[in-house]
Write a structure and sequence with these properties.
Blueprint lengths: L2 H12 L1 H4 L6 H4 L10 E6 L5 E7 L6 E8 L4 E6 L1 H4 L8 H9 L6 E2 L4 E2 L5 E6 L2 E6 L7 E3 L7 E6 L5 E6 L2 E6 L5 E3 L8 E3 L4 H5 L7 E3 L5 E8 L6 E6 L4 E6 L10 E8 L4 E5 L7 E8 L5 E8 L4 E8 L6 E7 L11 E2 L5 E6 L6 E6 L4 E4 L7 E8 L4 E6 L8 E6 L9 E2 L6 E6 L5 E7 L6 E6 L4 E6 L10 H4 L5 E7 L5 E7 L10 E7 L14 H11 L3 E6 L8 H5 L8 H14 L4 E11 L1 H12 L6 E5 L10 H8 L6 H6 L2 H4 L7 E6 L8 H12 L5 E5 L9 H19 L6
Parallel strand pairs: 3-5, 39-40, 39-41, 41-42, 42-43, 43-44
Antiparallel strand pairs: 1-2, 2-3, 3-4, 6-7, 7-8, 8-9, 10-11, 11-12, 12-13, 14-16, 15-16, 16-19, 17-18, 19-20, 21-22, 22-23, 23-24, 25-26, 26-27, 27-28, 29-30, 30-31, 31-32, 33-34, 34-35, 35-36, 37-38, 38-40
């Protein structure tokens, strides 16, 4: 046998790592370029329908965002505005902007983080470094022009429908500026430390899904705005612990059971320079979650939610001085979920509305007196969101879960249907479709992903036919994930039977080179909170983290317990007055199922969660001692009395009325029973789940002489957005899990 081939073979064996698939590491998941491909946000069709705009991250800096467009006629994708070409250094953000980005979960990014179109399609407007900028697309060579300037930080710029003016919030007052001249004037003057005009309050941003506090009328002659007064909320000191200092922040945080802001709803006539105040009713302790103009611009609607959230009213106010009319009232014994599914028809005196009255969220058509014309959709599935109405063709478009709770699709229905159960599916590929339609509901932009495909952006006609790729993001060639694609592990979906015959959906990833005759450790990745599903056929950084742990030898398992959205209101209502108990019962159903699987090592099952998931992890450990090999809780709620009004009272009522529900839902009530190894992690400047949640738990565990591991992050907020810190979090978790449940290969 020749010698040289043997030597060559030996070299190939010795250097096998050269030809092996690259390793997926935690550091690589958070590095640039993003493994998911270009990061895309806020894809929108222009009002003229000639282009699609979106925000995209840099390949070499995943946290720096620019404004892009796909020009339909030219079939070209290009940068419209590079953020650092406009402002080289944004400097420090104003506290209100820092808070707003934290509420929107975009605290870790910079550059152009949002933009808006003018209704006529001429202007694109965006805030940057506290000033307002506009791109005038009517110019032969479009260029960015600065509209506002000065030391003040301008927030939430919105262009008037006629394209002539921009309104924004400055120093907690509402302002307006002429887009041509930049001349600005204040529309309100009483904004101070407790009064805010046009600025969405903390509760609105964090819990109600409302990020603005003012609304242009359809013709641009008026602005409706909310004036909020925080004076009834007692100021408290929150400590933000930085690496080199401790900052004391005075915050009017609406702890559950304590006062909220009070509202006034005003309408400013810009030409007459007058303000008319709308009657909000006799009860002052309410929420105003939504405000919408009717198409004629002479009537304004607002939604009025009771403090206990068991009543939601749709009210229409006439601007001629006539009394406001309550046209629709929703009630529930538990709570009413808010939505954005209100659309007033322009050609008929009617509106489309969604309701969970029949047990699942569906669409209804009402006249302006609140009389039901017809139910538009029906079935044991939910409408997620109304996406568009084509009045000319009599069609309504919406996303929903008719295929399954883990998929989201676009559907359509006739406005004159006699068969609400018979809907038409528009989107085609299995997975998760995030859709934005044009105003006429004839075209839509689809941001699609699945557990096998990172986000893609495409343009479609209303029948679902793809007309153009805006960003195909195919994993091939120089895509950042190409070399890792071959080792990507499939996600399995299934269901278990809950304690009362409910369907509990789960997802599971088996380890690399899975051998059914081996027994593997399991990482139960949990969230469990009512507003978000983990079991979804979609891509995301969280899915990449799960891929990492599966490649390290873990079975990764997630189960969506009772209380979670997209499986009907009865499925959610199970957690009413039962937080921290129902979720754990269902998670233990998942644990029991795992233990019965031949490929699972029943002695090596760990549980991990962040935020609400951290809360469920702690409650599972405390209520079921000696059932887990280890647990990890990041930024967990421990005592609901420390959380805010709108979220907590929705599920638990107030501490005054429901002391037993708060006691049983308190981690500290159960913490003395924790015996399994615990890693507790919390950011030290968290303004959502305050650091106090974890310090109280630390003290309780110390009093009970219960050992635990601890990691804290100076200066970090709830999401721990610093890249190095995020890597450190997950590397810490990986080491802890390896120490306690010994995966097949080292992390």
């Amino acid at each position: 046998m020749p010698v040289l081939p043997l030597i060559a073979a030996g070299l190939l064996i010795a250097s096998g790592s050269v030809f092996a698939a690259p390793e997926l590491t935690i550091a690589r998941i958070f590095a640039s370029p993003d493994l998911s491909g270009p990061s895309l946000r806020q894809a929108e069709l222009s009002p003229a329908g000639d282009r699609v705009t979106f925000i995209r991250a840099r390949e070499d800096d995943r946290d720096l965002l620019d404004l892009w467009e796909y020009h339909i006629g030219e079939d070209q994708t290009r940068v419209l505005v590079a953020a650092d070409a406009v402002v080289a250094d944004e400097g420090e953000l104003a506290p209100e902007e820092q808070a707003r980005r934290e509420r929107a979960r975009i605290a870790g990014v910079r550059g152009i983080v949002e933009y808006r179109w003018s209704a006529d399609g001429r202007f694109l407007i965006f805030p940057l470094a506290g000033d307002v900028y506009v791109l005038d697309l009517a110019d032969e060579a479009p260029a960015v022009r600065q509209v506002t300037t000065g030391a003040a930080f301008d927030l939430d710029p919105q262009v008037s429908p006629d394209g002539g003016r921009v309104a924004f919030v400055r120093d907690r007052n509402l302002w307006v500026a002429d887009l041509e001249t930049g001349q600005a004037r204040a529309l309100t003057d009483d904004g101070d430390e407790v009064i805010a005009n046009g600025l969405a309050e903390f509760i609105a941003q964090e819990e109600m899904g409302r990020s603005t506090g003012f609304w242009w009328s359809p013709d641009g002659s008026r602005i409706a705005f909310l004036r909020t007064d925080e004076s009834a909320i007692e100021p408290t000191l929150r400590f933000e612990i930085q690496a080199d200092r401790i900052t004391m922040v005075e915050q009017r945080y609406p702890f559950t059971g304590t006062p909220n802001v009070s509202y006034r709803l005003g309408v400013i006539d810009l030409d007459e320079d007058t303000t008319r105040w709308i009657d909000l009713g006799e009860e002052e302790d309410i929420y105003i979650p939504r405000v919408d103009w009717l198409p004629d611009g002479e009537r304004l609607s607002f939604q009025r939610q009771s403090r206990d959230q068991k009543t939601l009213e749709l009210v229409i106010a006439e601007l001629d001085g006539s009394p406001a009319r309550t046209v629709l009232t929703e009630t529930a014994e538990t709570w009413i979920n808010l939505h954005d599914d209100l659309h007033f028809l322009a050609e008929l005196p009617a509106f489309v509305w969604s309701s969970e009255a029949d047990g699942f969220r569906h669409l209804y058509l009402y006249d302006l007196d609140g009389q039901l014309i017809r139910q538009l959709t029906a079935g044991n599935w939910v409408v997620d969101e109304l996406k568009g109405v084509d009045e000319e063709l009599g069609l309504v478009y919406f996303t929903g879960s008719a295929v399954s709770p883990e998929q989201k699709h676009l559907y359509r229905q006739s406005l004159v249907t006699r068969s609400p159960e018979n809907i038409t599916q528009v989107s085609r590929r299995p997975g998760w479709h995030q859709v934005r339609m044009d105003a006429a509901a004839r075209v839509y932009v689809d941001t699609f992903s699945s557990t096998q495909q990172p986000p893609q952006l495409s343009l479609h006609s209303a029948d679902g036919e793809r007309t153009a790729w805006l960003l195909e993001n195919r994993i091939a060639g120089d895509h950042p994930y190409t070399d890792l694609r071959a080792s990507h592990l499939p996600t399995e979906f299934g269901s278990l039977v809950g304690p009362h015959e409910q369907e509990l959906r789960y997802r599971l990833i088996r380890p690399t080179d899975f051998d059914p005759n081996r027994r593997y450790p399991v990482l139960v990745h949990v969230y469990g909170g009512p507003t978000h599903r983990l079991v979804a056929d979609r891509w995301g950084r969280r899915a990449l983290i799960d891929q990492y742990f599966a490649r390290k030898g873990y079975v990764v398992f997630s189960l969506d317990n009772r209380g979670i959205v997209r499986q009907g209101k009865a499925f959610q209502d199970e957690i009413h007055l039962q937080l921290g108990r129902v979720e754990v019962v269902d998670q233990m159903v998942g644990l029991d199922w795992l233990r019965r699987q031949n490929f699972v090592d029943a002695e090596r099952i760990a549980i991990f969660g962040w935020s609400y998931g951290g809360y469920v992890s702690l409650m599972a450990l405390a209520q079921n001692p000696d059932q887990f090999a280890a647990g990890v809780a990041v930024a967990p709620v421990t005592d609901w009395a420390l959380y805010d009004t709108h979220y907590t009272e929705r599920y638990l009522g107030t501490p005054q009325d429901q002391p037993e529900a708060y006691a049983q839902g308190n981690v500290l009530t159960w913490a003395g029973q924790i015996v399994d190894p615990l890693l507790l992690i919390h950011p030290m400047a968290d303004d959502n789940v305050l650091f106090t949640h974890s310090t109280m738990l630390m003290q309780k565990l110390q009093e009970e002489r219960i050992p635990f591991d601890l990691m804290t992050y100076p200066g970090e907020k709830h999401g721990i957005t610093g890249t190095s810190q995020r890597v450190h979090v997950y590397e810490m978790i990986a080491r802890f899990l390896h120490q306690h449940i010994e995966p097949a290969s080292a992390p």
